[in-house]
Amino acid sequence: MILITNESIGGVPSLHVVKGGSEDKELSTIFFFHGYTSAKEHNLHIAYLLAEKGFRVILPDALHHGERQNDQNDRDLKFWEIVINSIKELEGMKEELKRRGLIDDQIGVIGTSMGAITMYGALATYDWIKTAVSFMGTAYYQAFMNAQLSIVENRGLDVESMKNHVLSQIKPFDLSEQFDKLDGRPLLIWHGKEDQVVPYPFSEKLYQELESRYQDHPQHLKFLSEERTAHKVSRKAVLSSIEWFERHLSNDEVS
User: Fold this and answer.
1) How do 27-33 and 221-226 pair as beta strands?
2) Which domains are present in the chain?
3) pTM greater than 0.90
4) Order of strands across the sheet with 221-226?
5) pLDDT in tens, 136-164
6) Please, what sign has the CA dihedral across residues 225, 149, 75, 31?
7) Residue 170: how many CB atoms within 10 A of its CB?
8) What's the rounded Cα separation, in Å, for the pair 227 and 214?
9) Are 100 and 26 in contact (CB under 8 A)?
10) Which conformational region is residue 254 in: left (phi greater than 0), alpha (psi within -120 to 50 degrees), or beta?
11) Please, which of 82, 140, 163, 183 could form a disulfide with 176 given CB 3.0 to 4.6 Å?
């Protein structure tokens, strides 16, 4: 039996998914960040499969999403505020679970789209993350920001001022500017080749740039792409992520 609890963790509305009988144990834990305009409930099918393998899975609602959504019409302009806020909140969630005796030092992070972008920033920030999975995200914060601003330029906004402001915010979290922070940690990258929301070349370029850095442990880096696949996570991607965490995140129940 898989238990699903809606609770506040570190002040963040979250779904807490775990196998029945293990809810009070210290477990290897995976944090799952959802995509833009999505919510924590939308990734429950993946969390269920991970929990079946013995992992504790935490799915938080991002700022301005799910239970935290409000009537603001300018959420598009708050994308990077949302990403950075989630990165910062991850520390508090981890610390609360630690205080409650529910989490060990085996911690993974997975994200979809905006959630994968958040995941990359978390890797640049926290060395306690042991392994990570990206579903159609990008680690190239500045390049993606420039593409976003080119879209809103026609809305009569002061794009140059916005660019300077956002750049100062995202720079410390931009993994593409500090690949040494990865330090060989296992990373699975998945992307559909027809993705027009977060373009596929971002992930292909990332893999190519990282390949030489993983020469000593090539099994710690994996890139999966799919033909005729747009901005939607496939079942192949889901099953690959489950296998990845089984292989790279230590867990007594799955070893």
Assistant:
1) unpaired
2) 2-248 (3.40.50.1820)
3) yes
4) 2-9, 12-19, 56-60, 27-33, 103-112, 131-135, 187-192, 221-226
5) 999 999 999 988 887 766 666 666 777 88
6) positive
7) 20
8) 26
9) no
10) alpha
11) 140
